[in-house]
Specification:
Number of domains: 1
CATH class: Alpha Beta
Low-confidence stretches: none
Radius of gyration: 13 Å
InterPro entries: SpoVG, SpoVG_sf
Organism: Eubacterium ramulus
Protein name: Putative septation protein SpoVG
Helix content: 10-25%
CATH architecture: 2-Layer Sandwich
Keywords: Cell cycle, Cell division, Septation
CATH superfamily: Stage V sporulation protein G
Largest sheet: 4 strands, antiparallel
Number of helices: 1
Pfam family, one: SpoVG
């Protein structure tokens, strides 16, 4: 799996959400609405989710294993830091 495109839209409002990200995988599959959240232990990504009938949020799309999640998070956070540095 290769992430071939990362698009970051920074959020200007106050709050923990810092950006919304879209990624393209292998120039064939896109995942939208990945969020960059500023947490107590630093920034992390939250995969796209939807609130279900009992009020819980469930991921709509997500990596199947921790290694893939780590790769996606590292690439997104690297691109995010580059955009912050350019601003």
């Amino acid at each position: 799996m290769n992430i071939t495109d990362v698009r970051i839209r920074k959020v200007d409002k106050e709050g923990k959400m810092k950006a919304v990200v879209s990624i393209t995988i292998d120039n064939e599959f896109a995942v939208h609405d990945i969020k960059i959240i500023e947490g107590e232990k630093g920034a992390f990504i939250a995969m796209p989710s939807r609130k279900n009938a009992d009020g819980e949020y469930r991921d709509v799309a997500h990596p199947i294993n921790s290694e893939t999640r780590r790769q996606i998070q590292e690439l997104i956070m690297q691109k995010y830091r580059e955009e912050i540095a350019e601003a």
